[in-house]
Every structure is written in structure tokens, then in C-alpha cells.
């Protein structure tokens, strides 16, 4: 049943054209990140050689594969994150609002399975896109810089996938709670901002999923250090499962 | 056998009582008209029957299953919501194929139901459908699992006369094959296609019987009268011992429930003459469902 429901989600993603948005964004940033890292110093130098800036000496260290990967993760955590939220935030609330959820559930489709199919589908699609763009980014980085640490960059990507797991759980939670897309987005960003505000307290960092992005950067720069991140990973997964559990409980009891 | 039974069913939203001790019985094989003004609790009843809402108190049996214990019965139900919304980016065929896959129905059934509702050759996306077409697609979707029971929530309320006729003909064509539970506030629709009627008001079931029985009970005792001063006529006729009740239906019309029709036939014209009133209409008639409805809810 879950696979059949996921198939319906896939058809929806294709028919609504959302898949092309995801494809474009991931492709753009997987190829764009190493290119930007490689040519930014050259661009700055050429600007500095213009007549207005003559006399100014700019020393920039030669870019490395690390700059390319840092740029890649920066884009994943900002623009790609926003796109994922926009594409998936209404997945449950909009179906509740429009009444399409009631129709499916009136056929005896289990609520829990319906909700989980949404989550698993979003997880599957996002994971595939992230891994695909990582491979593309790594290939381009190697092509432009002639070196890359697959070990560091791959594990930093896995760390990002754990963060994505949390973000998607929060999206499902917000979407199951909200009665429409606007409400769901409000719930999502309220919780997201709270987690970001917690980052102000350094002693709480190891319990905060938002800190995973700083580990991604550290692993790229200094190498993989599981010991530092393990507590963070465990807490992120715990929060994710709690959010999923609460979503199911709420949705099972919600009147449609 | 009853396909729907509710026992002492209550539903509250906060302090608002929406269903009040509802005891509903729908026998197998009938087209059941669930009548009531807007806000009477029709949609709430349907949502409870479909497990989309939970009763505050009471029990519900659908197709012999207690709905609070099992949801398997839903596999044998077809449902059309009051405002059916679909995934607009699909064509009717694509939508029903996706649905048939999810609920485990043979894809051949898609062609069959599209044929029944006359959408077999429709290639447009659902988003471009008219209301009538959406309603027909809704019925196709409800028929997809070949259900024993069809639950239709106000299937004709938003349609033009042509669309209404099409949908009613469609429902009528299912007579004998399925039990149809059909909520509406359009009395003429019920009168046209239903075998049995339940009248709901403020969450209470005021009447539940076959349309024939209801009419038989009341048919011998109704006189419809139209005079130039209905109020004076009402006051005067009320005092007569053959009169049971007098209702003003609209501006000039009176509905007089009488105990003795023969006496009424003689006396009413006499009273009109005595009171010097002008008679515009006099009819001893079978009551319409509208008459019954207004009588019951008043």
C-alpha cells in the first residue's frame, strides 16, 4: 500500500512539474558550486585591475577542492533548503484543505500509511537528488582542482542527509498540524527559528540539529571526526522520530 | 438487513450539539433521501459514517460492522463529497487508474465506470472540468470499488437543471444494484428518486419511513386552499371540529389537515361564502414532500 501511495506521489511530482524545479536547483548548485569556487578569485582580480581600483593589491589564496565543497554545502543549506520547504510544505495540509485526503481515506486507506508514504517519498526523492548532486559536484570539483577527499566529502554529505531527515520530519509535522499551506509554513518556520535561536547557547549545540551544518564544514576542512558529531546525530534522529510519531498521533485523531 | 444503523448518536463541536440522539436505520437496497435544511447535521452524519469524524456518544453500524472497531467496511463503500475536489493535473482516466491501483481494484473497472458516467472519451485534465463533469467523475470514483453502499453528500446542490437531471438519472440507474444514501436539501430530487426518506432537523431525526407510507398517512387529509385573505380564513377554519391543523404555506396558500374529508369538502366552501372571500384554488391532494417536510420541521 505504501509503495502504491508513493507511486501516486511520484506521478504528482512529475505532473505538477515540481520535479523539474528540484532537478534544476540541484543541478545548478552541484555544477555551479565548484565553478564559483574556482573562478571567484579570478573574477575579483579582474575587477581589481579595473581603472577605479588600480593600486589596490588583493591577496587571495589559491582555491582548493575544500572551497568548492564548502560552497556546495552553503547552497544546500540555504537555497536548496528553501526550495525543498516550498515544494513539500503543503503535501498534507493542502490535501486536507482541498478534500482530496478525505476521498482517499474514505476508501479505507490507513491514515498512518498515507502520512508515512508522503514522508518516505519526500525522503527518497531528496536523498536521491542530494546524492546525485554530490556525485556531480565531486566530479566537477575533481575536474577543476585535480584533487578531492571522497571520504570527507561523502561523510559530510551523509551528515547533510541526516539534517534533511530532520527537516522533512518537521515538514510532515507542520503539514499534518496546519489546515492549509500558510499555517503549515508558519508552524514550520516558528519551530525552525526556535532551533536557530537555541544556537545562541553554545553549551546546547550538541543537542541542536542546526549545528550539523557546522560539522559538515569542519569535516571538509579538518577531516571526519565522528566523536564530535555523534551526540548531535543521535539527538537529531530522536527529534525526527518524535516529530513523526506526533504527526501520526495527531493525524490519526484529526477530524477531516 | 440494515446497511446503516446509528444508536443514540451524539456529536458535539465544543458546546454546540450537531447530532442529537440520532437513531437512523437504512435498509439494504433502497435509495434513501437524507433531508434537512442547511446546518441540520447531514454532512456531520456522513463524516461519522466514513470515519472522518468521531461520534461524541453512541454507536454506528455500517454494513454490519461497528465503525469504531474496524475500518474494513470502508472498502465496500463509495463516497461522493459535497464539493468533490480531485488532483487537477490528472485526466479522469489517469486519476481513476491511480486510485484503482491504491485501493486494489482491477484497471478494467476504470473503463466501466467512465462509461457509466459518460466520461470515457474525455481527454481534458480534471482542472478544466465543469462542475457537472466533476460531479460525474465523483460518482465514477465512488462506483470504482463496486461498492454495496453509495454515500452521496448533496450530489446535485451546485448543479444547473441539466446537470441535476443527469446526476439524478445516474443515481436512479443504480436502483436495485446498490443501496444509496443521499443527503440533500432539494426536496424535488428526493421525491423523484428516493424510496425512503429521513428528515433531520437540528441533529434530530424527525421522520424515517418510505415515501409511499408517508404519503398514505397524510394523503387523505390534506386540503390546499388559496384565498384572498388566508389569515381570516385560517382563524375561521381553525374553530371547525373536522380540522386538525392549519398551516400557511406562502402568501395566499393554506394547507388544512382535516379529520373528515367529506365534511371538509362541504364546509370549507360554505365558510368561504360566509366570510365573503374570493377563492383562487381549492384542491384535495396528495401532499408533496415539500408539504410533509414543512409540516414535519415546523
Cα-based radius of gyration of chain A, to the nearest Å: 21 Å
Measured on Cα atoms, how large is the radius of gyration of chain B? 23 Å
On the 0 to 100 scale, the average pLDDT of chain B is: 86
Mean pLDDT of chain A: 89
The amount of beta strand of chain A, in percent, is under 5%
- What helical percentage do the residues of chain B reach? 25-40%
Low-confidence stretches of chain B: none
Within the largest sheet of chain B, what's the order of strands? 7-8-9-4-10-11
Q: Biggest sheet of chain A, in brief? A: none
- Helix-strand category of chain A: mainly alpha
* Largest sheet, strands/sense/barrel of chain B: 6 strands, mixed
Tally of individual helices of chain B: 10
Low-confidence stretches of chain A: none
User: What is the share of helical residues of chain A?
Assistant: over 70%
Q: Helix- and strand-based class of chain B?
A: alpha/beta
Shape, principal axes of CA atoms of chain A: elongated
- Tally of domains of chain A: 1
β-strand amount of chain B: 25-35%
Please outline the helices and strands:
The complex is a heterodimer of chains A (256) and B (298).
Chain A: H1 2-15, H2 18-48, H3 65-88, H4 93-98, H5 100-106, H6 111-145, H7 150-177, H8 181-198, H9 212-222, H10 226-253
Chain B: E1 2-13, E2 16-22, E3 25-27, E4 31-35, H1 42-49, E5 57-62, E6 65-66, E7 77-80, H2 92-103, H3 108-117, H4 131-143, E8 149-153, H5 161-172, E9 179-184, H6 187-193, E10 196-201, E11 204-210, H7 211-219, E12 222-227, H8 230-238, E13 243-248, E14 253-258, H9 261-274, E15 279-284, H10 289-297
Parallel strand pairs in B: 4-9, 4-10, 7-8, 8-9
Antiparallel strand pairs in B: 1-2, 1-3, 1-5, 5-6, 10-11, 12-14, 12-15, 13-14
Helix pairs in contact in B: 2-3, 3-4
